[in-house]
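Hi L.,

As promised, ATP-dependent RNA helicase DHX8:
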Amino acid sequence: MDTTISNVKHQHSSSKSSLKIRHRQIRALCDEETITVYQAYNAEIASHAVQHQKLNASPLFKPGRMTWIKPSWCWMMYRSGYSFKDKNQERILALKMRRTDFLVLLEKAVLATKMAARGTGDSKGVARDEGEEERRSDDVRVQWDPERSMRLERLEYRSIQIGIRGDTRTHWIMNSIVAIEDVTEMAQSLKAALDEDPRVSEQELVQRGLLPQEKPVEASKILHEILEMD
């Protein structure tokens, strides 16, 4: 199944269907083998990444930082302002990664809210047994932010963000990403379409290939517990 962003012309979830969507649910453009996530970079990092199909190909890529990836296209639009927000987010990349690696990554995650609780000395919900401690890592953090519509309106349900750093990020870059595509033009075309006709329907934008399909990602019971999903 081809889930290349440029070939996608399916329906994206909207605010009209928000009542049918669980409050905390992983949604992504995916098939049986891969899941697509997004991140925005400056032009140099993005160009090297696409050319060499390696996210850290540019010497400007900083190995010590935490990388935050998002499976939500509309949340990426919100975060980057459709790529117009600033120079460090002027190029949006679609990172296709192995589905199994995506799920394993999440099994290692710690919720950002629990990290904050540790910092304040609040141990509620933080204690873990030895087996769980070995499986989970502070190198992977998850936070649930309000989902956004194609017009960047805040929706009632949540969208997942995943932060990766350290050796886990290095392994993810070298082994989990199978394709990198520059989707900046798609983002800018979406913004142009909305500006040209503020009443343009979601269905029309879907037909024009500006909204990728994002469907629920099946998660294990353990993952539901770790991420406090509905």
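The mean pLDDT is 87.

Thanks again for sending the construct details.

K.
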